[in-house]
Amino acid sequence: MSTKIAVVGTGKMGSAVARFLAGTGATVRAWNRSPAKVEPLVAHGVIAEADAVDAITASDLIVLLVLDYGTAREVLDRVTGEDLAGRTIVGAMTGSSHDAIALAEYVHGRGGRYLDAALEMYPVNIGTREGLINFGGDLDAWDEWRALLDPLAGTSVFLGTDPALPAYADAALAGGFFNVAMGGFLEAASFATRVGLSLEDLRPFVRVALALLEDHLLNHAIPAIDSGDFSTDQATVAVYLRAVRIWREEMIAAGQRAGLMTANLHNLEIAESAGYGASAIYAEYLTSRA
Predict the structure, then answer these.
(1) 20 to 30 A Cα–Cα from 59, which one of 50, 97, 231, 253?
(2) Which is it for strands 27-31 and 155-158: parallel, antiparallel or unpaired?
């Protein structure tokens, strides 16, 4: 007997997940408020359902990829009686830790099991070596469904039994790191083209910088933070601070807003004021909390 799965919500990410799961040999039912978004999936072996309730009650694993947690709750509210009992719900929406906890309590209260999931990837990366999914919630559900959920991404991590953990990781890594890094590049690219450089001129440095960033994060920053030893014979907070002041002035003089560079300057100033001017830049970690 094949595994029975419902994918509720078939936007770009939901459609990618449904196609991949159908390719594993599972029986996949899919529903979307706009039926036209489900129709292309039929050619991939997905069963289109006109009603989300039918998809859910016919399945053992339900993957929610709707707009938000409020919409997920509205869908699940339509499932009557004990029909969630014994089923595993995976909430894969972007939301807050409070949203995840509330939905987990709701599902548990109706006899189901809940896993929260933060998909740190684009739809095109589903089922490939790229991408990461962070899971958190019911350990028994993870143990039962891990073999099926793991291949959705190159790396899948169960963070723990607290369903809020994926949302925390999402805010920290996708928001605080990746999104800010992408914004920094776009700010840099805007400045570069404003002053006569081409985007191709940036490519060699971006390649080198990404390698340096990975090396310094994995081999230097993490051990320094873990040990509390921020001594260095390389560039210090004070050295970075002086450079950032100059870089920011260049941007502003060229008519660039320099919002992220200004935020970077502010963080370095706080670190220096706290007495870490002679420390490695990783000492910013100590002064980044309010």
Answers:
(1) 97
(2) unpaired
Collapsing DSSP states into helix, strand and coil, what is residue 9?
coil
- C-alpha 177/C-alpha 112 separation (Å) is 34
| 153, 125 contact by CB (below 8 A) | yes
Is 26:53 a contact under the CB 8 Å cutoff? no
Interhelix angle 97-109/69-77, rounded to 10 degrees, is 10
What per-residue confidence (pLDDT) applies to 48? Answer: 98
Per-residue b or e along 136-163, where b marks 16 or more CB atoms closer than 10 Å to that residue's CB? bbbeebbeebeeebbbbbeebbbbeebb
pTM above 0.90, yes or no: yes
Tell me how far apart the alpha carbons of residues 46 and 42 are, in angstroms, rounded to a whole number.
Answer: 5
Q: Amino acid identity of 11? A: G
